[in-house]
Amino acid sequence: MKRNDAGESLVEVVIAVVLLGSIFAALMAGLATAARASKTHRDVASIDNVLRDYAEATKIAVRSCVTGGSYVVQPSDVPGSAGFSLSGLSPTNSCPAPTTTATMTLTVADSFRSRSLQIVVRTP
Q1: Nearest alpha-carbon partner for 66 in 45, 92, 95
Q2: pTM to 2 decimals?
Q3: Are the beta carbons of 102 and 37 closer than 8 angstroms?
Q4: 2, 38, 100, 108: least buried by Cβ within 10 Å?
Q5: Confidence bin at 65 (pLDDT 50/70/90)
Q6: DSSP designation for 108
Q7: Is the pLDDT confidence value at 1 over 60?
Q8: How far is residue 39 from each of residues 3, 29, 33, 84, 120, measured CA to CA in Å?
């Protein structure tokens, strides 16, 4: 009498486990890459927001200038600037004359990257 052993062999089981493991590893690597890319994008977007707020605070300070005076932009004037370094302005900046403009480059940096923005300001 012939026996019918209709089951999987050890080789088939090992191949299936290796295949499933490889697929799972590829999916996990893809998710990890997506998470890193998302964090990088979020960090760059945060720097851009702080940089634009820094530029707006500078423009508002210059609008309130008087001829021959000076203006100051503090990090506390820039919302969300905690954790970032702001540069591009000296502690006191001279107001531009009413008929002229001043070009300045503002830079915001965190511990990994920095972004710069060049703005032109004038007194009203």
Answers
A1: 95
A2: 0.73
A3: no
A4: 2
A5: confident
A6: E
A7: no
A8: 60, 16, 10, 16, 32
